[in-house]
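Re: beginner question about structure tokens

> Can someone show what the tokenized structure looks like for a real chain? I only ever see the sequence side.

Sure, here's an example I had lying around. Input first:
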Amino acid sequence: MKKVILIKYGELTTKKGNRNYFIKLLDDRIKKKLEGLNIEIKKDLSRMYLLVEDEDLPITLEKLQTVFGIHEYDIATLCEKSLESINETVKLLAQKESFNTFKVEVKRSDKTFPIPSMELAKDLGAVVLKNTQGKKVDVKNPELLIHVEIREKEVFIYTNTYRGLGGYPVGVQGVGLLMLSGGIDSPVAGYLAQKRGIKIEAVYFEALPHTSLEAREKVISLTRVLAKYQNEVKLHIVPFTSLQEEIYKNGKKEYTITIMRRMMYRIMEKLCEKQHACCFINGESIGQVASQTLSSLQVINAVTNYPVIRPVCCLDKLEIIEIARKIGTYDISILPYEDCCTVFVPKHPVIHPELDVCLQIEKNLNFEKLVDDIVKQTTVLKIKEEETRQYQEFL
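And the corresponding structure tokens:
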């Protein structure tokens, strides 16, 4: 008996005319993820089939858990399209499982198969009862659900179903730049953006010597976690010190964070143009801090026409932390190294900034040249998912 992993697309099946494009991207992503393994991949508009050697099965299942665009996958036994082969396979699978109640569910895509689905399910249920002891049929809430799919050339039989990450294959929506601060929220925002098909590049604003090299190392570690969902993430390290000091010296203290965010957005816009990105992404959550009130976001947003994607904007902190723990960024994010957003926070930051005040402050700043110089001096690292390199020359 051959083993095959059935991959079910879920949301991709709603794409109608674009379905082939989405499936091709998912196929490319899976091939890249499983590079080096002896796996044969077949696909159609409703399923993808991975024929896997037994020794490669555990690592294959592990890697599929980092691929967006998969709704569900199942480890199936492949058998011939004959009643004798189906009966024998169902019997053997049932004898390997531990359960008290069960149900057999048959899907007959090939209507030329002579036995109707309901009748075959009943017959296979009798096979299980005959070859096991003390088992009962439960059609509403079975402990074991045996799936039998009869397709054009083969029959797939499986019991265990695994949830995939869902969403869309990374890259289907183009490139977005993620403002990765090193805190809890922004890596979660990056993960959720990837889930919706955005290929991310990370942007880290640092203010040496006010921020530490350990803070940069933390961001590199967070980028490496996000890279496992797309193999590689470019990390843009932005030297923000000169502009941040200019803001602190020549602006109103309570407006420091607002002006700083407006400058960051200006830099992000130039980086988006340079990298041909469609949007920028951040971890802003409505009302969480002074710069994230709706009036603050409105004033900050006024400097750009690029879409600003805020995946966690309506989540509370506990919900964000739950996702951070799940994806493995939380323990990195809470390392005690400050980023540039925290080192210059005034005692009483403005909660409802006025755009006219911001414009007046910015008239006193020589920010255009500083912004251009900062973009030119930005360093780009390519962070891979399973890389051991420590980037010591940058730390």
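Each token stands for a local structural state, so reading them left to right follows the chain. The chain has a mean pLDDT of 91.
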